Structures
1.
Amino acid sequence: MKRAWRLSSDAAQAQLLLYQSHGISLFPSKHKTVPSFITVRFTRQVNTISNGLYDIVALFSEKPGHPTKEDLINKVATLRNKLIGESSDSVRVCEILDENSEALNRHYPAGSALLELLNQLDSRPSLALQVFNWRRKGLHVDCPMDVYEYSKGIKVAGKSRNIDLAVEIFKEAANRGIKTTSTYNALMGAFMFNGLADRCQSLFCDMKRDPTCDPSIATYNILISVFGSMMLVDHMEATFQEISKLDLALNINTYNHLIAGYIAAWMWDDMEKVFQMLNLSPVLPNLKTYLLMLRGFALSGNLKKMEEVYSLVKDYVNENEIPLVRSMICAYCKSSEADRVKKIGVLMKYIPEEDYRPWLNVLLIKLYAQEDSLEEMENAINEAFEHGTPVITIGIMKCIIATYFRCNALEKLENFVRRAEISGWKVSRSLYHCKLVMYSSQKHFNKMQNVLEEMESFHLGCTKRTFWIMYKAYWNCGQRSMVLKTLGQMFKHGHEVPWDAFPS
């Protein structure tokens, strides 16, 4: 399949430069070699980077007296901050926009100021929608809305979960003779964002029947994303095959959506195949690609490759991707790595205290119990009690009990049992059997009887194992009368007893 350099490649390089300018290094200097499974060809990219730099420099090097892109961004940022400060008052928002509209539109090309403002309000879709509606209904604005503004408005409506408005804007644009691939893609994206896969696919069919519009690579990327999120792998792969037949140039979003689709379906081999295909193409992996691969390797338990990718995006992940940090911790917990506790300890430092997750807390309790790390286990147990997180899995409770037993921590076990009973944790006979054994080893016979009463209060009757623990304890200490009493209780409850169990 033919592949051509597209704007996406330049954008990927510009994005890479942007990451580095903010201290995000995809290839830190301390890593002298790139991991073996990642093929990055720097030589081939030099000219591309240079061209991308010329394009960026041009934005900031216009003649004095002409507004620059930087000037636009700064002025719009000031306006954005004013709007955010008054976002709860829709009337005041419109007043601020009215006060600034003439100055912005006089100095900048029509629509560019609004588009920049909507981009800067991307994380605040409700406010962005107010801004778009103001522009849409503003009769005082001389220039009519263009395709870019309509497309952005459709996207904003979709992000605001207002699908009816997104469809209305699309139809309004069509009635004004603005029905393009961009508006179709925007509405498909809105459907995708809101999980409306059927409507997204239906609109794609309408687009293919429309003689005025041809699907672009962005159109197919949306379809791949929709099918991937629904784990419709066959549909996703068929869409990719159609792209190949049309000889459309793939961009980084195509690869990222494919990787994400295979991750959703837990198809790890196919995930890696797409990544290898990407490394052999003219398209460059971006930050999102590495974050996806890191997640995939963590979920699949491929620790070696997980650590290789993590080394490339470590600083960014530690600061901005706490869910990925948790996924890596989970991967270590499920592994048999010799130093997994140490590696988990390092990662835990990046999780804020307020970012508590019950499932992770319980997983760590189990891990520390399996490693006989009593202090760490108790710290995790205390955290669970503080957050009201009950452990209701018998297997994990048995791991905890076994740790107390192996560490001969009777007092700590007593304290744990009391708190577990009060806090609604899973209480089982194993818990009390462990107490019986530990009391018997220290000849605390009165406390052994108390354990039986505790069991009864939780409607846990004595089993054959319970009586045998009692029998062995009394037998080893020569408590003949208690031995006979215990054997009698065994008979009473219908448990079979060997004849040689009776003392001579």
2.
Amino acid sequence: MVTHGDRSRQANASGRRRFKQIGAVVALGLTALLMSGCSAQEAMRFGWPEGITPEAESMRHLWTWSVIAALVMGIIVWALTFWTITFHRRKRNSPATAEDEFPRQTAYNVPLELTYTAIPFVIIAVLFYFTIIVQNGVETKKSDPKVVVDITAFQWNWKFGYRTVQMADGTTYNGFLRDGSPYELQQKELNKEGEEIPGPANGRDDDIRNYLKFDRIETVGTSEEIPVLVLPVGERIEFEQASADVIHSFWVPEFLFKRDVFPFPKQNHTDNRWQVSSIDKTGAFVGRCAEMCGTYHSMMNFEVRAVSKENFDRYIAYRAANPNATNAQALQSICETPVSVTTRPFDTRRSTNGSAEAVATGGTSSNTTIPGCTVGAQS
């Protein structure tokens, strides 16, 4: 005969076994995390890349704490679920009763219902508040950026121009040339009847695209060469972007930020200006188009090359004094590898020797300087 005490001991033993199983699963999870080689800082990013701007760090913090909050809520929900399964189930070998057919119901517990209705609203309000705080910080634009860069996206590459640069000696370089259309420099083509063949944009009038900026110092990507956008560390930088044709998207993963690049920004009511308060790390960082823009979208890469303020000023001075020099020559003048060194995780790098199949060599994403090179000797 099974007594009530025997049933209690069996239930307790079953509960202990369940807790041991749960403990083993938790221990295995922690062991897998420790043996994966991830540092605590990497683990707390929860899959996000390491940011290189203050705005990126603020977004990472929001992401980290949002995931932690979600994990805490998940643990609570799963704990309540397993607690109910474990302690509110029919006991083994217990005689069947009418209550087993239809369990006792609890209804109209007003305090409990108000609690589990209010808690989600509190969670949403807290997340909304911190999201707005971070978003406002990311969207902040000040009136005194040290560098203003014009970004022009086109199928299927990028053009970067330096509109203004505040030099370390207090002078300001003004590189703005004019507004214009990307097609005005193209020669008009005529058919056999002598009629003009409609050009890009389905033959629409060129002057509707005169919102694009042209600067004295520009870097234009080609099918053979990925454009390298040189930027200084520790300076507030403003970007003004526009598209010459379809919608593109400017994305540097380490910025933890991307923004669509629209044609006709005024007509589309888009804010095409944004800033980063500083870039906090030198090196090479891959950039991509993050909006499907046509056949060669996957090849539409660029590289951000972050250098010291001193080398950036030398770079601008060299290009201003040598307007016919290439971007590669200007990079060499400050002892930087003249071609892109990273387009990971997709290896779509292209060289400057005219061969689209050749891969640029030299330098790494963390060390882009030319070995044995002295800046003064290259000036």
